[in-house]
Model the fold of this input.
Amino acid sequence: MADKLELLDLLLEDARESTDTIARQLGCDESEVESMIAELEGDGAILGYQPVVDWSRVETDHVAAEVELNLELDRETKYADVAGRITKFDEVTALRLVSGDYDFDVTVEGDSMRDVSMFVSEQIAPIPEVTQTVTHFVMNTYKNRGLEFIDSDDDDRLSISP
Amino acid sequence: MKLSERARNTPPSGIRRFFELAEEMDDVISLGVGEPDFSAPWKARAAAIHSLERGRTSYTTNRGMLELREAIADHVPRYGLDYDPESEILVTTGASEAVDLALRALVDPGDAVAVQSPAYISYGPGVRFSGGDPLPVSTRAENDFVMTADDLERAGAADAEVLMICYPNNPTGATASADDLAEIAAFAREHDLTVLADEIYAGLTYEGEHTSIATLPGMRERTVVINGFSKAYAMTGLRLGYALGPSEAVDAMNRIHQYTMLSAPTTAQYAALEALEACQDDVEEMRTQYDRRRRFVISRFQDMGLDCFKATGAFYAFPEAPYDDEQFAEDLLQSEGVAVVPGRVFGEEGHGHLRVSYATGMSDLKAAMNRIERFVAECERGRAET
Ligand SMILES: Cc1ncc(COP(=O)(O)O)c(C=O)c1O
Done:
């Protein structure tokens, strides 16, 4: 029986890999791979599959910002309640509760810096529990999801060697 | 200029011709590469850079930095090996230098040296450079290329002084279990052979643990073990290896090394030290990747109907060629742009096989296997029609 963690590891490397090739790599049957994937999806362990995009190579305007949020909660309101409201916005592509100087780490994406600032000031800042926002625009991405955005490590080996 | 007989009698390696053919063509996917596709782990590279920044550019002691020898001594117990860093370990310029030194330290002119075949192409010439006569010991496909007492007997290895073995093996990917090695060890003890064990691929073993022949009873005192950083640590270009053996053997090797090399490259020694101390996770990650590719490649060959024994080490598969290995490799290169190495390059018993390296990323590997499959199917159709 192939291992779910190994399967996840392979999918994390290339989620578009065919189940046939995955099965060969794991040394199991294709049907086994398919049922493990179905199980992982059914359990909600795998939520989806998305490409890693280097937006600087796509002809479009794309801006991302990391936004720090501080919250003040009362007895009736929990982090999850506020998170539930923030995640509803399409502009928010990631939201995490973090330790340290602030509470929420929010990734906001949009077409322009103006769009993103407007969104933060008009939609996020007014939420009653939010006491402070600090917006950091992403200037450049060098690595994301384990993939390097800068060309490196070209294969310069001799084509045949002993 | 008058060249020595030794130089004139050394033929160009059989790999050279294929290299030239492949270099002439565009869009070749090469499965003919005998080195990792990964770069050295970043921490090891960073340590090398740091050592340069601190100006560590002098020679080290002949035997290699003591700190590195100590790290090697701490590393090899994973294979059941135990060597004194002061007197039983020599750091060399690649495993290549260690092989050369060992042969020069152990072989007298005219001595027969039994050499596993098929195996790494440098052994035969290395034996000749030391004045010895190479005596090929053919291992057989039906035994999964594991050397048997019968193979040794048939080759006349009983009369040899030294026996060179290499497991995990280049080019076959074969490994040898403790039981397999016990048979070789018994033969070596019976006929008083010194064993030179090239274990450079020890870290790339996929089913079960690597066993060193030096750990078998009565073998430590007659064995020189060679290992290095080229394969498991993806550090080929840094040129660093080492030899482990009884102090008299290591002393003798060092006596030659101190005149011909002084010391192994200092920058590489710093990288190697970091590799041993901080890069085991990287090694494990690379090993996992190779293992997946290994299963992929072998299962694809089996589906094509090519006999492909289940290689369990290094990063090579060694399937049977549908027809003459050299012709097939050339045809495959010309018509599909996939480079593999004909098995005969590695010795008599390699005839009829292909060395297929899976030290190549999955996307190239998939494309290459599709091309090979298409070509093999075409060959079969051609044969059916005639
Ligand atoms: C079996 C074997 N031994 C030794 C070597 C040489 O290793 P190094 O780079 O450490 O000199 C190789 C390289 O291909 C090899 O395959």
Summary: Chain B touches chain A at residues 13, 15, 18-19, 22-23, 28, 30, 32-35, 37, 39, 120-122, 170, 288, 292-293, 295-296, 299-300, 339, 341, 362, 366 (CB under 8 Å). Chain B has 13 helices and twelve strands. Chain B has two domains: 5-40+281-380, 42-279.
